[in-house]
Design goal:
Blueprint (H helix, E strand, L loop, with lengths): L2 E9 L2 E17 L2 E6 L2 H4 L6 E11 L1 H6 L4 H24 L4 E5 L6 H18 L6 E5 L4 H10 L6 E5 L8 H10 L7 E3 L5 H6 L4 E3 L3 E6 L9 H13 L1 E4 L5 H13 L11 H13 L9 H13 L4 H8 L5
Parallel strand pairs: 5-10, 5-11, 6-7, 7-10
Antiparallel strand pairs: 1-2, 1-4, 2-3, 3-4, 8-9
Length: 328
Amino acid sequence: MQSVRVINGTYRGKTIKDKVFPMLKSVTSGAKGNFVTVDASDTLGKEYKKIRVIVDDYEYVSEETEIKNKETDEQIIKRIEERFEILDEMTRATVNGDVRAMIVTGPPGVGKSFGVERELEKSGLLDDLANRPRKYEVVKGAMTPIGLYCKLHEYSDKNNVLVFDDCDSVLMDDLSLNILKAALDSSKRRTIHWNADSHKLRNEGVPNSFDFKGSVIFITNVKFDNVRSLRLKDHLEALMSRCHYLDLTLDTMRDKYLRIKQIARSGGLFAAYGLDKMQENEIIDFMKTNQNRLREMSLRMAIKLADLRRMSPNRWQGIAENTCMKVR
């Protein structure tokens, strides 16, 4: 049975914070907000075998998550560092053509895209010096099936790299998923077909089929292992079987907070703000103290707070309560 951690919630007016319950029914939206049905008999007493807890903040908990909760802060930081080092290494391998396809998953705002784009930028410098067009593109946002087909054709040559970042709409469309599966296939020859008449293809001179010899990196917020839809799950399992799948393992609020702390400690987060270590720690500590009220725990939120601190050194925390936090 899967469990749920109620980070911040209420039951009959009583506050519940950071409690783990066996989950009887997943989070559902009701008249009073989101609620989850749990077995609270071990926590509240045997008469609370089945109750509904209103949740403001929560996370699903697996056995793997429980194991991670026993890690020290330094162990978590080391685990996260290793995952991002692997991401950098595999991106370089993708540029070199040694890795043809990779899916990277993790929550928004933790720097998934930054490392990939940095490695691609390094490879692009050589093309710039040789006055050649760069062999990669980062595509962001919504994409139609025919748009996906055309983009793959544009970057179908060997050593080209196509990065899809925040294009999760592709995962919700059967036709797009089938095109993506063909591009990520592990066979020696990857032929992609468009089996329908199209004015767009004719006008742009794109054939109805082509061999894809490039590489693809698909960056997503969707954790494939946790998808509940059977229809979508089958597609995602097919994608995972075709390519490398890297989960950055940033599943809890603690993981995300320590990722921010790690980047700040390395000097890569607040470098442009001229803050000393004490001032940087004020921001990081503020995020930890208010983790259940901040609208999100992310690198973007840390930058927002740094902006406020630079704007108003004496009042930034009060301003942050009004602009960066959920209303009580």
